[in-house]
Backbone:
């Protein structure tokens, strides 16, 4: 599953129907063809045209065949490609950053650790993209681009409340949100089950949703760090009227924010465009800042969504596939993609490439400290059942956090077992 932010569709495009694909043809003339599967709307057609022309010019013996895939049903399609020996199969595949774990099983991906260490500067990769691509000590997924939540806020309401600059610490955030929560306005609209946002608070405290102990994954919502993260979420969520029993899509927070009585939401920057479409009066009134951290020294941790590139082990030309990955994820084309699509580049050292766009710059600041969900293929079962959401609702309606956290953690542990119950 591509565990990206639910609102990320507004930045990275909506998911479509399964199985369809488009082809961006390269040159011809007897050159070896490298087949690349990229996901719908991850890159513009103009970007792909320019990249293809540049790559084929630099690699005169190679031809690119870029095939555009739909997200719906892609997991099964990739698994089939990895297990087959179709000569027309993909040599390079774009996958959601947290999908890599499910494809590593069975030894069907190419180990790219040597290239990552020697040539690709892996020390500078965003952790939320790099860590999900790692299996034990082997790097299989190569970071391509990222997106993550920021705080979208009403500049006019901040000024009216006497707030001259965005908060940089959690304590400042609570104090400012309290000032904004007056006069019929909600200081923040934060749904009770926005567990991706909660995850960042837990990570900031040094906690995790689950941790691996040997070969066993265990839920860890009952640790002191996770409980502190939940307590901060509870205090922040209370400074608005978000529903305690629903997530940010029920109702969609776009519409709630557009109604004009909300000072802040936590979302990907692209959501602002949808807000303005619904309420044009908010044009030029919206701003962005990174989710505040515990101290002003660094922004808060955030869940990082995005994509990695993988090379199937059954490729018939490893060197050609590696050349494509190197070009797409290298500084030249990765920063070009980030500028074109309003993404965060794959390295912290490339953040300056998007510094001129307020929303993307706020994303990049948070992405430097971003994380991903636990790196196990069984995590999909947790999201399908999602005891985190039910725990959040119980705490927000007055239940004792610790015993509820213990129950939720036991459920996560069971779901992460190889044969979940």
Residues:
């Amino acid at each position: 599953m591509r565990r990206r932010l639910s609102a990320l569709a507004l930045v990275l495009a909506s998911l479509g129907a399964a199985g369809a694909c488009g082809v961006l043809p390269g040159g011809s003339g007897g050159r070896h063809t490298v087949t690349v599967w990229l996901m719908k709307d991850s890159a513009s057609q103009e970007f792909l045209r320019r990249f293809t022309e540049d790559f084929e010019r630099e690699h005169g013996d190679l031809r690119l065949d870029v095939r555009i895939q739909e997200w719906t049903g892609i997991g099964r399609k990739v698994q089939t490609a990895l297990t087959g020996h179709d000569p027309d199969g993909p040599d390079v595949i774009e996958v959601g950053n947290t999908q890599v774990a499910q494809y590593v099983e069975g030894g069907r991906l190419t180990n790219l650790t040597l290239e990552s260490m020697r040539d690709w500067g892996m020390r500078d990769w965003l952790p939320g993209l790099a860590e999900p691509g790692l299996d034990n000590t082997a790097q299989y997924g190569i970071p391509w681009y990222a997106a993550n939540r920021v705080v979208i806020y009403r500049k006019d309401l901040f000024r009216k409340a006497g707030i001259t600059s965005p908060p940089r610490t959690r304590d400042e955030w609570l104090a400012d949100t309290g000032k904004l929560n007056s006069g019929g306005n909600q200081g923040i609209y934060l749904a009770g089950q926005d567990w991706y946002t909660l995850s960042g608070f837990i990570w900031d405290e040094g906690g995790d949703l689950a941790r691996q102990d040997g070969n066993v994954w265990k839920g860890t919502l009952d640790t002191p760090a996770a409980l502190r993260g939940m307590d901060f979420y509870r205090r922040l969520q209370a400074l608005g009227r978000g529903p305690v029993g629903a997530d940010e899509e029920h109702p969609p927070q776009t519409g709630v924010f557009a109604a004009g009585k909300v000072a802040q939401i936590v979302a990907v920057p692209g959501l602002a465009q949808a807000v303005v479409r619904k309420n044009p009066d908010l044009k030029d009134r919206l701003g962005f800042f990174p989710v505040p951290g515990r101290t002003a020294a660094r922004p808060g941790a955030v869940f990082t969504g995005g994509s990695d590139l993988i090379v199937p082990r059954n490729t018939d030309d490893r060197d050609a596939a590696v050349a494509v990955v190197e070009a797409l994820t290298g500084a030249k084309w990765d920063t070009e993609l980030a500028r074109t699509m309003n993404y965060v580049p794959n390295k912290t050292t490339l953040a300056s490439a998007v510094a001129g766009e307020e929303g993307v710059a706020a994303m990049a600041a948070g992405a430097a400290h971003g994380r991903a969900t636990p790196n196990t293929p069984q995590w999909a079962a947790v999201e399908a059942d999602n005891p985190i959401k039910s725990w959040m609702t119980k705490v927000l309606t007055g239940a004792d956090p610790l015993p509820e956290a213990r129950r939720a953690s036991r459920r996560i542990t069971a779901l992460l077992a190889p044969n979940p119950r």
Remarks:
- Residues 1-29 have pLDDT under 50 and may be disordered.
- The longest helix spans residues 401-416.
